[in-house]
Design brief:
alpha/beta; 8-stranded parallel β-sheet; 3-stranded antiparallel β-sheet; globular; binds ligand TUI
Length: 307
Amino acid sequence: MNTKITELLGIKYPILQGGMAWISEHKLAAAVSNSGGAGIIAGGNAPVDVIRSEIRSAKALTDKPFGLNIMLMSPNSEDLAQLAIDEKLAFVTTGAGSPGKFIEGWKSAGVKVIPVIPSVMLAKRMARAGADAVIAEGGESGGHIGENSTICLVPQVVDAVEIPVIAAGGIADGRGVAAAFMLGAVGVQIGTRFLSANECQIHENYKKLVIGAKDTDTIVTGRFTGHPCRGVKTKFARSLAEGEKSGELTPERFEEITVGALKKAAIDGNVEEGSFLCGAIAGMVNAEQSASQIIEEIMKKVKELLE
Ligand code: TUI
């Protein structure tokens, strides 16, 4: 299936795997790339040496293109931007900020640039700055989110920029992908569904929470910090939401409590203190499968629907 995204990245299917901090490591990224999508290693807040080693481990498992996600609020973003060049990666995706100052360097090194954006204004700014494509991410996504929904954001971004648009947020099956195409997207980014992949190395408590979640089991917390985040509605997430609402928690205290909570969820499976980030579509993720099964199942349905 050829779209501007499969052409841009040299991949078989127009599916990018989400760059999820503490989660998107080499085994998952290589499995997605070997299955015809575009795998992504997430830099998160990890030291550059750890991510270099993740990239090299992925290279040992696949000869297909994969990318690096750089969280721009991370103190390591500068080093990771250079690492993408040194390792001659196919592409980078960026989140939680504007990658403007890095774009020229990536482009002259042949690294494709795909910023994640939550608004039309940022999409236009990224297109002007030379991005090769953008990922328009709606608030149905897991993790740090913007205010608009995928169904509203994607067509507005498609109308606003000439570069290819990838849709993200709330997409977990072939129906979601086909719908994204109807909105004018030429690719999708999928995170939550890949949490259930066999190759995804997260703690089994995390997988259980996502697989067990129903439609109303995610919650957005932290709006008052300026960094709203969606994840599983655990007792911990509910207590954060209550503290935020009652005024019992200040934004500063909220940040203190949630520092390290992604690691506590993904690595330790700590249900009491971890933030189990996932998208609002978690209710539709009901079984563990291989990345290849996930992608083939999605693409079979997409082809059927588009025909
Ligand atoms: O970045 C994400 N999702 C994430 S990052 C993350 S780790 C985290 N750490 C601390 C606080 C919050 C989260 C977990 N999930 N998605 C991409 C994304 N990017 N969503 C929203 C944005 C975004 C926001 C503002 C992109 C650009 C932007 O620009 C602001 C500006 O004008 O610079």
